[in-house]
Amino acid sequence: ILNVEQSPQSLHVQEGDSTNFTCSFPSSNFYALHWYRWETAKSPEALFVMTLNGDEKKKGRISATLNTKEGYSYLYIKGSQPEDSATYLCAANSNSGYALNFGKGTSLLVTP
Amino acid sequence: DAGVIQSPRHEVTEMGQEVTLRCKPISGHDYLFWYRQTMMRGLELLIYFNNNVPIDDSGMPEDRFSAKMPNASFSTLKIQPSEPRDSAVYFCASSFRGKDYEQYFGPGTRLTVT
Fold it and tell me: What is the tens place of the pLDDT at every residue in A61-77?
């Protein structure tokens, strides 16, 4: 089991602000890091899967980076919009299996 | 594709009753996962299957929980007997190995045991 931690637990920003949150995980036996977006009353939706140190991925205004040596990933949202309000989950799996170990998530609220 | 399908979406039952949750994965996916979401513990993996075979059931809380995957398009999670502490949202997810382990989640089943 990989212990995945996310910070902050919650975040409240104004529309147009850029923001970022952190996911940390043990760097030993690491295989892949996943980011999911989870809106209330819906199911988690995959944003990114990253495996290589230095990986950067982007989808519209959202991007993510990965540092496997120090065991962290950042998720960035540029110019936040109210529709970005959701819980952002980070999960990691190890070399030894497909099981995803999820963090508790960062709850983002973007107000107009 | 219709995505991962779960039924029922909501289930309310009395303590001691048997509960069966159902999942249909995305066609062609060879991995199926059952998760439970609670406020206290977040999203935790219960069990996962590869090609219909259970691979890791270390997350199954106790013997009251069992899961089966009789074929590639259907899986069940059964709780017998149910207890109030089993109340949670249960998610099923599936993935295809070639997708770098990206998992696709179903809408979840909200279980309430009174």
Answer: 999 999 999 999 999 99
User: Picking from A11-15, A23-27, A97-101, B12-16, which range would have the lowest pLDDT averaged per residue?
Assistant: A97-101
Q: What percent of chain B has pLDDT over 70?
A: 96
Give Cα separations from B63 to A75, B57, B69, B78, B110 (angstroms): 39, 11, 17, 10, 21
Cβ contact, residue pair B45, A46, below 8 Å: no
Mean of the pLDDT values across residues A85-98?
89
CB contact (8 A) between residue B50 and residue A98: yes
pLDDT score at A2: 80
pLDDT, position B100:
65
Contacts of B107 in chain A (CB under 8 A): 42-43
Q: What residues in B contact A45, CB-CB < 8 Å?
A: 105
Q: Which candidate, A25, A22, A43, places its Cα nearest to that of A33?
A: A25
Residues of A with CB under 8 A from a CB of B: 31-32, 34, 36, 42-46, 49, 51, 89, 91, 93, 97-105
Residue B66: beta bridge partners? B78
Cα–Cα distance, B109 to B88 (Å, whole number)? 8
CA angle (B38, A77, A83) in 5-degree steps = 65
Which of B33, B48, B103 is opposite residue A46, by nearest beta carbon?
B103
